[in-house]
Amino acid sequence: MTVSEEQSARRRFGTGSIWCALLLAGWTALIALSLLVESRVLALIVMLAVVTGALTMIGSGLRRHRPAEPLPWYLLSASAVLFAAGTTLRDFTQAYTGPWDDICTLAGYFGLGVAATLWLRPRHVGRNYDLVLDSALIGLGALLASWTFLISPILQTRATTTKTVLAATYPVVDAVLLTLIAHSVATSARSETSLRLVHIGLFAVLVGDLGYSLETAGTATIEHQLLLTPLLAAYATVGIAALHPTMATLGTPRRVHPHQSRQRASFIAIALIVASLVPVVGSSLGTLDRVVVSSLFALLLIGVLARSERAIQRSARSERRAQYQADHDMLTGLLNRSALLRALTRDSEHWADQPLTLLFIDLDGFKMVNDSYGHAVGDELIANAAARIRRVVRRDDAVARYGGDEFVVLAPLGRQEAVMLAERLLGAFVRPFELSAGEVPITASVGIACDSPRGCEENIYDLIRDADSAMYHAKEYGLGYAFHGELRPGPLTNVLPAPGAPECTASRMTRRRETAV
Predict the structure, then answer these.
(1) Distance CA 475, CA 490 (A)
(2) How is residue 174 annotated by DSSP?
(3) Exposed site from 97, 151, 158, 461, fewest CB < 10 Å?
(4) How many of the other CB atoms lie within 10 Å of CB of 188?
């Protein structure tokens, strides 16, 4: 995008924001007018004006921003028309007793639910079921409260059967819609302003429906204009949401990371508090009420227990991951230096009463490879070298990256076994490494230090120091591998152990290994 195009886009965005602010102010003034003036005709005119304006704004937003998934916006438009039709039949038609107002309103709720589902379906959260569980718990808590304070009183009225069933359906639908909203809120990003405005509009619909349900249940008497206000606010908010540029991204596939876990936990805590108050408030409930309340309460507790169990498992996984990262080198997957130094004390039973051998491995000419090909190729070489070492040693041996191009193998081996392991390690470096920069031949030098299991006071620090010294001697004289001891330069000979010295501490110089071509 050029500078002029960017400035033009910013100018359009600023102009759109000004228009949204002006429209919001106009809708607020119009809704306030219907509250101040008690007139059914004026309330009907205001509602029709707000609905018409919302439909116009949705159409303008669809034409201007051209979203990839326009179907949810069409469903919202149809729901707004159905809500308006139901409200007109119920509140502005004299002596109307038919079921069409409820049918239109429930059809509008169905459109809202489908639109919310279409927006949520492309939002992938991996195999994270905690979010679905939390949303379901919030919905269960709302349904439990609805049964106690709304559904049960509505069922106890003496209205006709059809009217009673339809009126009792609204709290159930509201609980389902609240579940979808909670899921959508948890997966929305801060930059999705349009979706947040839609959330506000849907919450306003729930608030308005709550007022109607309270009035139907006889729990409260609310003025007509006041009941209509949340619905008018929902129309205006959804219309403004359609004008915002972020409306084009709603419904498009994207991977999101659930957040606001503490807020969801707070809602679940509120649901539990409400559930604990139900036995007190509903002490005079009938048999059916007690069965429904007990079932919902049991489902809520099962969900909370499942959530707690998943939280414990997630905490255990996080702890294991943190412990692994603290003990392992991230490039090679081998133990790091600190884990190596704790190896003998952490798993003392494995090393007890056994001969101990430490092999110190250093790559020959690694600095030249690193300087010639760069650090990325150097890291690649380190990782491949670690894999070859890991394949040579036994499963129970401790293998660590000591630092840079240095590796350490700690194994319960005697002298002859240590010689065989050192030769296998050197053989692992005969074949050149296939790296991104091409074939890179490299060799290694190994220093070996042994400790006998009987009365030896040396610890792992001494073994590392001795093996490191032997490795430098092997590298200096091209020996391939060498045991720690008195190593003399000159002709390569085997050095016999001093009288009375343990066999594993005897010094030895190996024959110069043959260089592979």
Answers:
(1) 14
(2) H
(3) 158
(4) 22
